[in-house]
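Data card: per-record layout.
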Amino acid sequence: MPAPFDTWPLVDDATVRLLTTAGQLTDDQCRAPSLLPGWSRGHLLTHIARNADALRGLLAGASSGREVPMYASPAARDADIHDGAWRPATELVADVDESADRLRDEAAALGETSAWNTVQQWRRGRRRPASDVPQARLAEVELHHVDLGAGRTLTDTPDAVADALIEEALARLATVPDPVAFHVRVDGADEVRSGVSGGVRVSGTRVHLVGWLSGRADGSALRCDGELPRLPPWG
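The structure for this 235-residue chain is written out next.
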């Protein structure tokens, strides 16, 4: 896994791509459904902004040596997303842009210090180090860009980003209760990656692995030396 500050150029590039797409949406298009059930594009853009603020809070906690929760509560998280979803398109895009800048500034303030090793309280009871924030943010930006349903698909994902998304998916899956054991191998790559030791081996292209690991594809395009594992919901 790269050092956390090495991942930020990928996050920055993904954010620019997302803002370019979102900046072309009208108010009506922002109120139209996204590819995530029950969420409009406005819900999704608001979530991306609030996710940046939540991750910034984790980094602020790491900077002070405190373990803090990512969100005050699930209800508070949901309420923030719902309340912000109905704003004009220009406000939604500005929120995504400005919150991304705040997160980037907080990360820069940590520099190359040991604060990145501070364990924090992520969603769903997960406890992960602050060093996972950059790849987690990359996954939020890149995958939700696809979820906007505004032209971008998983096939547009650059290889370096797809590799980081696979690492993030495996890191998430390793922290759930009763994690599923399996290995993954990217077609053409020598390295076998493992979220949890043991289990079957799952192989495929980067795009197909990202789709399955993130819950955005059923895995039918993958190869497996046994029964394809059933994964918990992404999130």
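Known properties of this structure: Residues 4-152 form a domain with the Four Helix Bundle (Hemerythrin (Met), subunit A) fold (CATH 1.20.120.450). The chain has two domains: 4-152, 159-224.

See the next section for split statistics.
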